[in-house]
Design goal:
Oligomer: heterodimer
Helix content of chain A: over 70%
Number of domains of chain B: 1
Largest sheet of chain B: none
Mean pLDDT of chain B: 90
Structural class of chain B: mainly alpha
Low-confidence stretches of chain B: 449-454
Distance between the termini of chain A: 22 Å
Low-confidence stretches of chain A: none
Number of strands of chain A: 0
Shape of chain B: globular
Order of helices and strands of chain B: HHHHHHHHHHHHHHH
Radius of gyration of chain B: 23 Å
Number of helices of chain A: 17
Mean pLDDT of chain A: 92
């Protein structure tokens, strides 16, 4: 191996940290302002921001686990980027607290007097009650954290020892994580989003949130990979071919998301049962019709067209653009899932501006997570037995 | 296990000539006695099915066990079952191709052939389910004097388009893959008749650089087309049920749930058949234990997806607070068809969990048993969905129990006869493994691998 082709660790500049703190601080200040004006509204914006970060974090965990379970090689050179994305998981433990303090502000079913006068909600109360809700919300994050902790620990340890048994351990942990992931992400989708409209139900809802989560985490990984590689933070032997699978997976999950969204829509529309349709009709009222229709274009048509051709899937410029776009689309999707339930009768100009407060902070948090994540460890898993094969990956 | 090394896809240091010889052997030799015994069994099953079908056509579908309110029974159950079996072939040949899985080369041809045969079996059921197959022409929308049009808003019609498109694309995809092999067979055979036949089918293939370039492009494009197609087919099959407002049928998770179930059952069928094929035709170095283990992993994963869907349906039935929805699911698990429900759950969710253990994944007898269980379980899944959702109508006066007669179960047996007859003929007439693809992934086809690895 030539000396210049060996990975050398490089630290992110202090500016990145500054930007991260600045975004977080600005977001939080405006978020606080919006909270003082209207706590219910502010907490709703906080809720979809939290769902946004959950989807990135736990989606990252899934990608992390999948690499081990399916024995992927192409992704080994970028696995640390995936791990850093997943390192959002411990932050969630902190971020969930404000929501837990405002359950009553957000959820209809959390009010005893409402439940007592509503036969359906009464029937659901063994599941939808505050204690069990908190157990599920905190419990799922703790479970993710447990897997995150042990799997990243094994991965980092391998940098020094190169011990193949650590790969084996992570394969086992990853395999166990996948069913855990399926159950917890469904619970999170039902609890945080579906139960906002407590009468409504859809069996596919967990899969819908899952599709969005994979897209969101893949987008973050793609953006970070392209930026880090362009600036020399990743292994110098990486080539554009390594992007291909990121582009292909984004393309696949764009289709998967559209497929799931369409299936849910078509079946509800076709059967036309009032206990299901009201949720969609609600998103067809007033200005929401625009968001509903725009979602098809933003979340499906545009990224589909951009990613369709094979060269596009490994063109770093295009990938950067489309990954930011998809992240934005996912954000709109969550907004569309959460906000129509918030009975904000009129959106004032101020509230429209203020609802970007917490999302801005979320971007800041992501930047900080990457700042500390990148500087803390090697950005290439140098001890991984599959690294050599992974670097040699060509289409 | 050493993760830094690449596992060989073809074992036993086979040379390129060995591969060709092994795969072409069944076509070079005359069928033996065992082959004819097997063929007589499947042929008898087929004939029995034909008899039952003939009786049905003569007397009508009254020969079957269908009743009020269970108007849909084995005909649709068998249709969905066979379409599902077909899905594994496309998954292996197209989706695993897009995912760059080299191990698919050993099994893709066989799985793809099974797709085609399974879809033939599946297509039979919509064609006969009215007992009046001479009316099937009306399935196609065409301008006619009676101004009779098909119902474009019905997913049953979408099925006609989806399944026939799927069949066409699968057939073309399969045939494109066969062309280089036909050329190889043409070049090695000494019989004039065979040479003529292979020449016609090989379309003048000369293994030239340009041939391969076009081939690769066509193959990639067809894989790209086949992938959304295979997902759409079972999605539309699930719409047959889910667009209705019948409790137990109308649930939004049906599309992905059906697709996962299709892949699950299809893989189980591929494993079941390949266990015998690799043994009988000495293909153990080409269809290796690693291949079977990988397929078992897919069975485990898709089995859990199906289990997730069962759980979700139950949970949401409770969560919906809708008493009718709740009744249907309680009835499913504890009503008159509880036996079928628990066969389904144990075969599809419980037994495949044994595949968590590597020893079981790599043990031929246990994987055969589990794969057969999965086949049984997946047939019962469709039975449970169809029959147990219908047997308790909204009025207790229209409650009934469905029992198949000799005739509708005879047609099911006949479809198995048809399927296995076609499989047997295929093993004798065509290369069961893609010669050209396996050659390309064999160890000595990769010069760079020499050295450290051997």
């Amino acid at each position: 191996m030539e000396p210049n082709s060996v990975y050398k660790k490089k630290l992110l500049p202090k500016n990145v940290q500054k930007i991260g703190f600045l975004l977080t601080a600005v977001g939080l200040i405006f978020g606080l302002l919006s909270y003082l004006i209207d706590a219910h509204f502010a907490m709703s914006t906080y809720l979809f921001t939290y769902a946004f970060l959950v989807s990135i974090a736990v989606g990252g965990m899934l990608l992390f686990a999948l690499e081990y379970v399916v024995g992927a090689e192409w992704s080994v050179p970028i696995r640390r980027v995936i791990e850093v994305t997943a390192s959002l998981v411990p932050v969630l433990l902190l971020l969930v607290i404000p929501l837990l303090l405002h359950i009553k502000d957000l959820f209809h079913w959390a009010h005893n007097d409402v439940v007592q006068n509503d036969a359906i909600l009464k029937a659901k109360s063994p599941y939808l009650n505050i204690q069990f809700f908190i157990i599920r919300a905190v419990g799922s994050v703790l479970l993710w954290y447990l897997f995150y902790f042990f799997m990243t620990k094994n991965s980092r340890k391998q940098d020094e020892t190169g011990d193949q048994n650590l790969t084996k351990k992570n394969i086992r942990l990853g395999a166990i994580f996948i069913p855990v992931f399926a159950i917890t992400i469904t619970m999170n989708a039902i609890d945080w989003i579906m139960s906002l409209e407590p009468h409504w139900y859809s069996t596919i809802f967990g899969v819908y949130f899952f599709a969005g989560s994979v897209l969101a985490s893949l987008s973050v990984v793609t953006i970070a990979t392209v930026l880090l590689r362009e600036n020399g933070y990743l292994h110098p032997e990486m080539v554009d071919d390594h992007y291909f699978s990121l582009g292909a997976l984004l393309f696949a999950f764009i289709n998967f998301w559209a497929y799931i969204a369409f299936s849910q829509y078509l079946l509800i529309w076709y059967a036309n049962l009032p206990e299901e349709t009201f949720w969609l009709l609600h998103r067809w009222e007033g200005g929401w019709i625009v968001v509903s229709l725009a979602l098809i274009i933003i979340h499906f048509v545009v990224p589909y067209a951009v990613l369709l051709s094979q060269p596009a899937k490994m063109d770093p410029k295009r990938l950067k653009f489309v990954a930011v776009w998809i992240l934005f689309a996912h954000f709109i999707d969550l907004y569309w899932l959460v906000m129509p339930n918030m009975h904000a009768e009129k959106f004032s100009i101020l509230s429209i501006i203020l609802q970007f407060a917490f999302p801005t902070a979320a971007v800041g948090v992501l930047v900080l997570v990457f700042y500390y994540g990148v500087n803390r460890q090697n950005m290439v898993p140098v001890g991984d037995p599959k690294l050599k094969k992974g670097l040699k990956f060509r289409l | 296990m050493d993760y830094s090394r690449e596992l060989p896809v073809v074992e036993g240091q086979l040379s390129v000539a060995d591969i060709e010889h092994l795969v072409a052997k069944p076509m070079d030799t005359k069928p033996d006695r065992k082959f004819f015994i097997a063929l007589s069994i499947t042929g008898s099953m087929l004939l029995f099915g034909a008899f039952c079908l003939g009786m049905t056509f003569y007397y009508g579908t009254g020969m079957w066990g269908n009743n009020q309110p269970i108007g849909w029974a084995l005909d649709i159950v068998n249709f969905v079952f066979w379409v599902g079996i077909g899905h594994a072939g496309t998954l292996i040949s197209a989706i695993l191709f897009l995912l760059r899985q080299k191990w698919r080369t050993g099994i893709a041809r066989f799985a793809e052939a099974m797709t085609i045969f399974a879809v033939i079996c599946a297509l039979m059921f919509p064609a006969i389910h009215t007992g009046r197959p001479w009316l099937d022409g009306y399935l196609m929308p065409y301008p006619n004097q009676h101004r009779l049009w098909v119902n474009f808003t019905s997913p049953l019609l979408w099925d006609v388009f989806a399944v026939s498109t799927y069949f066409t694309v699968s057939l073309v995809f399969w045939y494109i893959g066969l062309i280089p092999d036909f050329a190889s067979l043409r070049d090695r055979t000494r019989s004039t008749i065979k040479k003529t036949i292979y020449s016609i089918f090989s379309l003048g293939w000369r293994h030239s650089h340009r041939n391969w370039q076009h081939y690769e492009k066509a193959y990639l494009l067809l894989a790209g087309f086949a992938t959304p197609l295979v997902l759409s087919v079972h999605t539309i099959v699930s719409f047959d049920f889910a667009v209705s407002i019948i409790p137990g049928w109308h649930t939004t998770i049906f599309p992905p749930y059906f697709v996962a179930g299709a892949i699950f059952s299809g893989f189980a069928m591929v494993v079941t058949v390949l266990i015998f094929v690799r043994k009988i035709f000495d293909l153990e170095h080409i269809i290796t234990l690693d291949h079977l283990e990988k397929m078992n992993k897919v069975i485990l994963a898709t089995g859990m997806m199906v289990g997730y869907a069962y759980g979700m349906e139950f949970f949401i039935a409770w969560y919906s607070g809708n008493p009718i929805e709740q009744f249907v699911f309680i009835n499913r698990a504890f009503g008159p068809y509880a036996w079928a429900y628990w066969i389904m759950v144990s075969c599809n969710v419980l037994f495949p969990q044994l595949f968590w253990f590597k020893k079981i994944r790599r043990n031929i007898p246990t994987m055969l048993i589990i794969a057969i269980f999965v086949n049984v379980g997946m047939w019962f899944e469709r039975f449970v969905i169809t029959v147990s959702s219908l047997n308790r109508d909204f009025l207790p006066s229209s409650w009934a129990y469905y029992k198949p007669t000799m005739y509708d179960s005879g047609i099911l047996i006949g479809s198995f006869g048809l399927f296995f007859t076609l499989v047997l003929l295929f093993t004798k007439l065509l290369p069961v493994v893609s010669i050209s693809e396996v050659k390309a992934v064999a160890d000595n086809a990769q010069p760079k691998q020499h050295g450290g690895a051997h």
